[in-house]
Design a protein that fits this description.
The chain is an alpha+beta fold. It has two domains: 134 residues, no CATH class; 54 residues, Dockerin domain (Type 1 dockerin domain, Orthogonal Bundle). Helices cover 18% and strands 37% of the residues. It is built from five helices and 13 strands. Helix 4 runs antiparallel to helix 5.
């Protein structure tokens, strides 16, 4: 019996458990949303932060009085924490979901979406760097959401350095200005190279994976099936033990 067990273990050890890339989708809600007005005067104030604004808009702030016309730049910023995306992930697609403001929005108004790496807090420098930057999009109808496809370069850079991504909404002075809801969500598609047996995708086959497999023992469960017969049995346990340790 011991001899038979050794033969089984040896044959399983010679059977490589291949790694594979899995397409993952992560939806990341914004961590912070602000509006910045600057380069103006009076109500178009210099470096005026509006935290938790009721709506997001960008472009130019103007105010006409009896004696003067005040003007200044206006930009809205969202900040996203990317730390939930694994370091080994390869980002292949990026979208942002935005909703039209039910109060002020008019469908089709234009705005620009720009991106850059950020820090743990939004800064005036973020606004200065991103004003009037990015691709042009059109506002959805009030209370309706749309997903806008974005370039992946900035999120890849942020994921490799700070884990913080700043997305801006602004517009040219001559453009119509969109009015958007303050809530935004990044929809990130990425490939993650995993090894079989690493069920929790932490980069190694460890006791947590073994316990998950044992919990499924005796069931038909493709998630934990390593030998391809759908039934979780001793062969799956032995295969997992041969792959035990850090993923190569």
């Amino acid at each position: 019996m011991k001899f038979t067990s050794r033969i089984i273990l040896a044959s399983l050890a010679l059977t490589a458990i291949p790694g594979h890339a899995e397409m993952q989708i992560a939806e990341i809600e914004d961590t912070q949303a602000v509006q910045l007005w600057w380069s103006g005067g009076f109500q178009c104030a210099n470096n005026y932060w509006y935290s938790n604004p009721p709506m997001m808009q960008g472009g130019f702030c103007t105010l006409n009085t009896i004696d003067y016309t005040y003007s200044g730049k206006k930009i809205s910023l969202w900040r996203f924490n990317l730390s939930t995306i694994p370091e080994a992930a390869s980002v292949i697609s990026l979208k942002i979901r935005l909703e039209g403001s039910a109060t002020w929005g008019q469908q089709g108004n234009l705005f620009k979406l720009g991106m850059k790496t950020g820090t743990g807090a939004l800064t005036i420098q973020d606004g200065e760097a991103l004003y009037n930057q990015g691709e042009i999009f059109a506002q959805p109808a009030p209370s309706e959401s749309m997903e806008y496809e974005l370039d992946t370069n900035h999120i890849i850079e942020a994921q490799g350095t700070t884990d913080w991504l700043v997305v801006s909404m602004s517009a040219e002075y001559s453009s119509s200005t969109a009015y958007l809801d303050t809530n935004a969500a990044l929809i990130v598609g990425y490939d993650l190279e995993t090894c079989e047996g690493d069920f929790n995708q932490n980069g190694e086959v460890d006791v947590d994976d073994l316990l998950a497999l044992i919990n499924a023992y005796g069931n038909l469960d493709n998630q934990y099936d390593l030998d391809g017969n759908s039934l979780i049995n001793v062969n799956d346990v032995l295969l997992l033990l041969t792959a035990y340790g850090e993923c190569q």
